[in-house]
Amino acid sequence: xxxxxxxxxxxxxxxxxxxxxxxxxxxxxxxxxxxxxxxxxxxxxxxxxxxxxxxxxxxxxxxxxxxxxxxxxxxxxxxxxxxxxxxxxxxxxxxxxxxxxxxxxxxxxxxxxxxxxxxxxxxxxxxxxxxxxxxxxxxxxxxxxxxxxxxxxxxxxxxxxxxxxxxxxxxxxxxxxxxxxxxxxxxxxxxxxxxxxxxxxxxxxxxxxxxxxxxxxxxxxxxxxxxxxxxxxxxxxxxxxxxxxxxxxxxxxxxxxxxxxxxxxxxxxxxxxxxxxxxxxxxxxxxxxxxxxxxxxxxxxxxxxxxxxxxxxxxxxxxxxxxxxxxxxxxxxxxxxxxxxxxxxxxxxxxxxxxxxxxx
Length: 360
Description:
Aminopeptidase, 2 domains, 8-stranded mixed beta sheet
């Protein structure tokens, strides 16, 4: 970065600088600060930034606003580069969240401006802020495209089941009657089962699969703050989800099921089992994550009794430029999605990670 930028606020003189993500002490300081913030998320943590860079090669950076020796805000970033989808500076890469984490309005604007200057120096025509404090000004904000779904967990397994609306609860009960088994962990077999199911699931949706190395890097980086829950029909894995745990909140993040999972209601069993598993780990809330407004996933989560909470995103582009379009629901990808859904799984799994590295 250039020389530190300074501003005056109620907190006194502050500066913007880049975090050295290779310094364990500095990363630990930022991590502790993020964990103390109500709006902090896994996607603000150095663990996430480093895992993404290690697994995909997309450069990780983090801007810090400091005032009087204290942290006033941070902005985690990845430089996303793809021969198919171009370049963008994203907060955060491969995440449904991120953005500026700060309660200081002046720090918010300074971090946003520093990010834009950084993007210009690194030839990134677009900067995407996926949530966080909105900077205003030259940034275009959108709050109607996606919503998040979260609610508190209950006191025990039976109460959790009764908290699910009647029609969806009936589906869970049908799944429970199928004698499905549940396993949890983050070992080699857990990872193998999860990736095989996830890869098949996203192929069926017409989406290139992320590399196995991405899931491995996140699991390794987060340790006991991430795990995999898998549903088995006998010895056959049929549904699986990789979840993140953050300050008492469980977030099912990468999950899916094979075709037969629908007949078995395995996905319904999976999420109910995860609620119970998370409560046993000391969690108090279930974050079902982001869905595009009006999509099938959006209505699925509403059927579980979750209320949508609109998310705000901000984008800034170079003069005359258009933001990159990596939305799988975009009409321009309709033919590609239909083609991808017909690919043999072996081919989709071979080509998908190369394409998906640029989609985060």
